[in-house]
Write a structure and sequence with these properties.
Length: about 800
């Protein structure tokens, strides 16, 4: 039986209600929405329009009557033309693939867009009056066009994120006339000096290349801040948004050097994490969209200086900003829209939609619909007030004085277990005393007896939310309290099958945040640690594994596998237990251990593989046995174990699609029903406090620690792991539900399978071949099978191309 949720509010205001419909806002007060991250956003002050998934750039038509924005997220990419005053849709142009921001014609109101992905590498011209593509220019492959610019003579430049090159396009022939090699992951372009010079922001190398267009050579490289992503110029200086340094670099184009770097006014000291990701100049004002801060910073340009005027609160994750030609209206594009969502009616998206045309499927990547806000240009007083509001809307929970949660306290050892992809209701919705929905449970007490026993003894957290959406950002939020702008923009096309490169873990350069990860923090402060399976890479065999991050080298177990569904979590536990016994004998247990138990991800119903119930039960037993081992050791009295899912994308939840199971296990755990709202960043902040580490980003710096979940008097009673209640060796047969579909799905890494499809397969495996995920509608498995076969063939083709390239 579904229990009633805790009190929740909706955004106030008729315009906001019309946009958001039934969107759920956790802990909201009038006009304020609390996001799953526990940061808050204000209701729009002017007009607001709902868009598709992840809008990433906008321009205004020459006469100011139209807003033209580009959506590049999980759903089908779309160029949308809106009425600039009402934000009503005028045209919607569906695209095979897209990325970045539209580029308005030098003359006329058409725009160029980058067509990026498996559907072709090109740029396309869209007639915005008719709402139709009327020209295309093919690009060399692989390329991934990330940005477009044009010079006064009409020459266009296109940045190739995967190619590390710039393609120059002749305006008369509309063909590529040449290319220029630049730095890694070029993200933004700007012509200057009458078109003779091209500036290129190299996101992967924290530099700006200065390209001589005539000779097609890089004549200078300017060091700027970390991960530059946007460029703008007032004719005297070039401004660079340093996404992972929370600042704007001011470049003197005559001397080609940075003359000043100015931090955004709401950036916190000692941490980075506002993600300045878009720039626009209007008169003497510079507007800087800061995605991770849900705000726009506003500066006055004065010579080679920037004077901070204040800030403007926005919706969730702004990705673009524009000012109309009269400087009367400001437009802000919010990549994630206005609030979080429930997904109790979750059903297959992606493949199923091919047959049904269903746009209501509640898969998390599909629900991340963006918005655009139109507002009056704020005056000085409003900007000052806006700056105070932006700071107030962020998390600002000071670490409270606490006898247990403190550095040098009784807890000296932290074990951090990271699992894969389950929602709260999927696992714990059957705990009747907490806020769960038993109708959505797939892996209840019979499949996960240890997780239920641990929750009932040490505490049930029914308001724990993932900061992340999927595994790509989930493993970063779990270990860095952050997902940077590259990651936020690149995972949706990757998950939609339009971008094959998965470069979000094992210290991939463009997705690495400024302050690194938990292990970098520990290494920098002489805190001993050991890593088991997180951010490591396997070679031809599952072990030994390797690590690219220097901070992990020599501090990870090479014999502990990373993601591989053919390896049981029971065997992972045995390897961890082997080292734990050695540490116990030598009294050298590291202060921090990070342990990856990923098998609750499952391999669907693939013939010959363990069933989904067996894999989840195996995962449950591994957690229980680890707790059993620690609780019977000499270090039990000084240990806290934190168990999280990296994300909650693989299941329905009646409260929020980002709600997930969480377990705090320690002699000092208070137990009972814990209704306090916590996040992945809260867990990291708690661990940092216990280990004497500083925060890494504004998210863990401001997160609420779990101090209320601890008690002063320990209960040292050991925990005895419960045996599995089902057959751990059970395997799928040829006639298992969706066995043919599972046979062609790619389980070589986490989230290579469309996750809504994965959930449908899991639902069938548990509920039966004729059951369908809520709301019990048509499930076209045949279409999913055909699409999965197509995706498998495409992936094999991409792998073959990659091998040839190497």
């Amino acid at each position: 039986m579904r229990t009633k949720g805790l009190a929740r509010g909706l955004i106030a205001g008729a315009a906001a209600v019309a946009v958001l419909g039934s969107a759920v806002a956790l802990g909201a007060s009038a006009g304020i929405v609390t996001l799953p991250t526990q940061w808050r956003v204000q209701a729009p002050q002017g007009s607001v329009g709902t868009l598709g998934t992840l809008p990433t750039g906008l321009v205004l038509s020459r006469d100011g009557s139209r807003v033209i924005e580009l959506e590049t997220g999980y759903s089908k990419p779309t160029l949308r033309v809106l009425d600039a005053h009402t934000l009503a849709e005028v045209h919607a142009v569906k695209l095979g693939g897209a990325y970045g921001a539209p580029l308005r014609d030098a003359n006329g109101d058409g725009v160029w867009v980058a067509i990026a992905g498996t559907f072709g590498e090109q740029i396309a011209h869209v007639d915005t009056e008719r709402g139709a593509i009327d020209a295309t220019v093919s690009l060399p492959t692989p390329f991934w066009p990330a940005a477009i610019a044009h010079s006064p003579d009409g020459t266009m430049a296109v940045a190739g994120d995967l190619a590390n090159r710039i393609a120059l396009i002749d305006p008369s022939t509309r063909t590529v006339s040449g290319t220029v090699d630049v730095g890694h992951h070029p993200a933004a372009l700007l012509f200057a000096d009458g078109g003779r010079t091209l500036y290129v922001a190299d996101r992967g190398e924290s530099s700006v290349d200065v390209v001589d267009v005539a000779t097609r050579r890089v004549r200078a490289r300017i060091a700027v801040g970390d991960h530059p992503v946007a460029l703008a110029s007032d004719g005297r200086h070039v401004y660079v948004a340093d996404a992972d340094d929370d600042d704007v670099a001011i470049v003197d184009p005559v001397r080609n050097r940075v003359v000043r770097r100015v931090r955004v006014p709401f950036a916190e000291d000692h941490v980075t994490g506002t993600s300045p990701d878009a720039l626009t100049i209007a008169g003497d004002r510079l507007y800087v969209a800061c995605g991770a801060a849900n705000a726009v910073a506003v500066f006055r340009i004065s010579g080679d200086r920037l004077q901070a005027l204040g800030a403007i609160p926005t919706g969730w994750y702004p990705t673009g900003v524009a000012v109309d030609r009269t400087h009367a209206a400001l437009y802000v594009l919010d990549g994630k829209g206005e609030s979080g969502h429930t997904n109790a009616q979750y059903r297959p998206a992606g493949y199923a939609q091919l047959a049904t045309g269903d746009s209501a499927a509640q898969y998390i990547a599909r629900q991340l619909s963006g918005s655009v806000r139109r507002m009056a240009i704020p005056n000085a007083a409003e900007l000052a007030r806006g700056l105070a509001d932006v700071r107030d809307l962020a998390q600002h929970e000071p670490a409270p004085a606490n006898a247990i949660v403190r550095a040098g306290g009784p807890i000296r050892h932290v074990i951090y277990i990271i699992k894969e992809n389950r929602s709260y209701d999927q696992v714990l919705g059957d705990i009747s005393t907490a806020d769960g929905d038993a109708s959505l449970v797939l892996f209840g007490a019979k499949v996960t007896p240890n997780e239920h026993a641990l929750a009932n003894r040490f505490g049930v957290f029914d308001r724990f939310f993932e900061d992340a959406h999927v595994s790509a950002d989930g493993h970063n939020w779990s270990t860095a309290a952050f997902a940077n702008d590259y990651l936020e923009r690149m995972w949706p096309p990757n998950y939609a099958g339009r971008r094959s490169l998965y470069d979000f873990e094992d210290s991939a350069e463009a997705s690495r945040p400024k302050n690194g990860y938990l292990w970098d923090n520990a290494a920098a402060h002489a805190v001993s640690f050991r890593d088991y399976g997180e951010f490591v890479t396997a070679g031809a065999a599952s072990t030994p594994v390797s690590a690219s991050d220097p901070a992990l080298r020599g501090r990870f177990d090479p014999m502990f596998p990373t993601f591989d569904m053919d390896i049981t979590d029971a065997s992972r536990f045995k390897e961890w237990q082997r080292e734990f016994a050695l540490y116990e004998r030598s009294h050298t247990l590291p202060s921090l251990e990070i342990v990856r138990f990923p098998r609750d991800h499952t391999s669907g119903t693939k013939n010959g593989e363990n069933t989904v119930q067996a894999m989840v039960a195996d995962n449950d037993l591994a957690v229980g046995e680890l707790v059993d081992t620690v609780s019977h050791s000499a270090d039990w009295a000084s240990t806290a174990i934190f168990v999280i899912e990296d994300d909650a994308q693989n299941g329905p939840d009646h409260v929020d699609e980002q709600r997930a199971p969480f377990y705090l296990i320690s002699p000092y755990a208070a137990g009972g029903i814990q209704h306090g709202s916590y996040t992945q960043a809260s867990v990291l902040r708690t661990m940092e406090i216990l280990l004497g580490l500083p925060p890494m980003t504004p998210y863990d710096a401001g997160a609420r620690p779990l101090d209320a979940a601890f008690r002063a008097t320990p209960d040292l009673t050991p925990y005895d792991a419960l045996p599995a209640q089902i057959d751990l060796g059970a395997k799928n047969g040829k006639t298992a539900p969706d066995a043919a579909l599972s046979a062609v799905l790619d389980f070589r890494g986490e989230d290579r399978v469309d996750d809504a499809t994965m959930n449908a397969v899991v639902w069938h495996a548990v509920r039966g071949a004729h059951a369908t995920p809520p709301p019990y509608g048509l499930f076209p498995a045949g279409s999913m099978l055909r699409q999965a076969q197509h995706d498998r063939d495409a992936a094999q083709h991409d792998d073959a191309k990659d091998d040839d390239g190497d």
